[in-house]
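Weekend entry, working from home. Most of the wet-lab plans are on hold until the incubator is repaired, so I used the time to fold the two sequences that have been sitting in the queue since the last round of cloning. Logging both here for the record. First:
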Amino acid sequence: MGNVQKKLAAHAKLAMKAVRAIRTMRASAAILLVLALTLVPLLGGCGSNSNAADNAASSESDANASADKASSDNSGGDSSRLTDRDSTTETHDDSAASDSSDSSHSDDPAEEDRGDSPPPGLERGESSQYDDSKPGQLTAGEWNDTAEWKGWLNLLQSGEGQENTSYWSFYPERRLEVDVVSDGKPVADAAVTLTRDDGEAVWEARTNNEGIAYVYAGLYDEQGSQDKYGVSVSFGDQLKRYGNVPVPRAEALKVELEQPVKTASALDLMLLVDTTGSMGDELDYLKTELKDVVKRVDRDNGQQLAIRVSANFYRDRGDDYVVKPFAFTDDVDKAVAQLSDQHAAGGGDFPEAVDRALENAIDQHEWSDDARARLLFLVMDAPPHHERKVTKRIQELTEEAAADGIRIIPVASSGVDVHTEYLMRFMAAATGGTYLLLTDHSGIGGDHLEPATGIFEVKALNDLLVNVINRYAAQ
């Protein structure tokens, strides 16, 4: 590739970054800026490449400044869910790695792929090497659709939402919240079953540590079969039954058990990590973050909870392995060593064997019968193969996880596309989990998809994971 072509490729990349940065600007200003970024290298690239580069750098700096102002203007407004992906605004914690407003750039497109910010702790112009042995470098956000339910339903009514509900055959509109208490305190791990008129179970779930369970009527059926259902709640030898419960229901169904219950102390943590070649840009950092998380959770909760960890890894059909599982262990150092031994390889095409990985994780591991929380962190950057039998299996496994009280908590890495985002959020909501996503703020790895969510806070990934685990495990 000649020098002019390299310059044009670099400017094209800058133009795309500017477009992303100015999504909240007025349309007219956005058009002018994109035209400037496009025409400058075309008109002056052959005769004055250095001037074109300077102009593009200045334009990118202006775009970043305008985007920062727009983000600031929006931060004080309504933080409810947005249904327009292009209108999503993020805020970030100053303690995490932040975006740099420096407009410096390289002629090398590969260097541009490292992001706009220098590595955490470094100034631009210093060493460009990240230290993957130090935790707290990756940045991430959280969005919980079960907590923002109306916004989630609104999003699913958008063109993008309807396309993805049809694509994955997930139709979560008919949901019932069940709140279970005993002696005024929430009951964790109570079994909740939604039944048809004939007594057949439609959906099963377990209450979380706040005593809340979500059950679905026809999650994989767009039409549904009836409007009212039976509900049963059991814990130990206690059983409560309710009939003719409308689904959906405006308010949660409140259930009070008559006898006091004892809260379980078991905490099962499973890490299910994609180790295909496409994860190579972030895997070493993820291993460092996850090892730090496991140690911190054990240090903070080891005296109060019986913590077990299972580290599992997967690739794709035809690779050296499809699933590499490790059983639950209470030896945290052993789990950390298993994480350390992994590397990225294989893959090839975009989809991976997510269904095989989930099947092993949910069906072939000994999860605790009674637990404060069972958390499955699914770290991935690609969807399962979009085949009818695979989609059906994903649905079955999601249903099994919900019935067993296993909260699927996806962690979206660089490369995740829109279809994958929706599947991850479908699985999280169906099992009472939450959606986590890596962001560009760290400058590590490839580009991360801008999610179709409202405003969320960006934190260091390890801190966010510890917060999420502690929240699900709190008494």
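Second, folded right after the first finished:
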Amino acid sequence: MDKSDGASNHHSDLVTFGVNDPEDPVNWSSVKKLFNTSILCVLAFTSVFGSSSYAPGQGQIMKQYHVSVDVASLGLSFYVLGFAMGPLICPLSEFRGRKLPYMISWPLMIASIAPSAFAKNVVVILLFRFFTGCCAACALNNGSGAISDVYHNNPPAQGKGVSFCPLSGPCFGSLVGFFVAASGWHGLWVVRVHLILSAACWPLVFMLKETHGPTLLRRRARALRAQGHANAYSHEEIEPSKPRDIIQNHLLRPAKMFIHEPICQGAGIWISLAYGIVYFFFEVYPVIFITQHNIPFRLCGLMFLPIVAGMFVLIAGYQPLTRLFARLPLPGIVPQGKVLAPLESDLKLVISACVGVPISLFWLGWTSGRETHWIAPALAGVVFGYSMVAIFICFIGYMTRIYKIYSASSSAANTCIRSIVAAGFPVATHRLLDAMGTKWGLSLFGFLSFGMLPIPLIFIRYGDELRARSRYAREADVLIARLSARQDEEKTNVEHLDSLSSKGQEQKQETSSV
């Protein structure tokens, strides 16, 4: 233990994790890691499931509550807008642990779903849809921190867990929603299904294990003090965070990073577009497959399965695909003789995704008419699903490796922006389709995404320069270097104390033998 000055001006024994400490989440067994991560993924899946399961019931809600399609679509938009509240909720996990926010937000989410599932007023439905999205934001955003605690040195594992379940959840939500809405029950049964699923998952919250290192060390210090070690304190207890730090680190810093950091801006633009198009699909797919291809209403949700299949292809083949694209030559982009850093080399995979998005949109748009078989537009979803998950994993992983200890702030900025952008897509969809039709409406986003293709190319060519100019990347490197030096010093002190202790014991043994 290291000796430090506490707030009460006395020496404290600093409580830390050992090298192979079994209580450190990084050192958990593979089974324990997988179990905890699986729960996090199920909770994230359930939280976003309710966003899209609502969409198939919009037609019935329009008839039962006598509202326009734009008003009915707000139920989807408000839920997604609630996700933007995640950066305001997640700071709690940095001070009270990862589990407590789940313990608070999950029952609140269930309590918010209930009024919207049985309300007789559309205003109440929309209001509580927003509250539900705010509560669901915890599982959607807090899970990435918990997974990072466990797989600290494995960014691909973090990216897979963070991306697949939250992105596939809306697709399955829409699939179930169409079957429920087709049954002829009350339009709000699409919300009641989410209520049942959320209540069924509530016991999983109690099964979660705490992964936040400072919280675990604080508990260990308290246990040691209860056992008589009066000077045992964790770092968080010796230097507690102040309210000003919460505002600065978790509210102001994400905004500053998005405003001043080109890497955050470029990645945020691409992720926001891909995320928004997903919710655009929940409104445009019924037009394409039900209205224009005469697919039975209850089967329309099956058209989202190709998107899930594309996601799975990327998740399953992520490692070999990353190695394959890392060897891809880019003449004209990478100067001859220049050796790319691993950060930019691994980012080459996202080029295929950024090309795949406009291809899938043009494909879907120009096969959406009655003159083509329905399988043609459905298969476009495979390309889009692959591209969307690749964009999430590659860009989020890129920012995580650049900003390191500030990666939570870059993620918070990204979450807020993409949620606000995505919330506008469902409301704008029907006006866009009325004005341009499915072919040119989808082509509009195809041209937009094609125009954004230079972003990853700029990152790959000028990534080292952007990182060198980044204030937050430099600060993160300096802080990590200081932390590493401090840990080495603490380790040296501990080894020195251990050696003195062992010498003292040897002298006592010699004295007693004499």
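Plan for Monday: verify the second prediction. Residues 212 and 283 are 39 Å apart (CA to CA).
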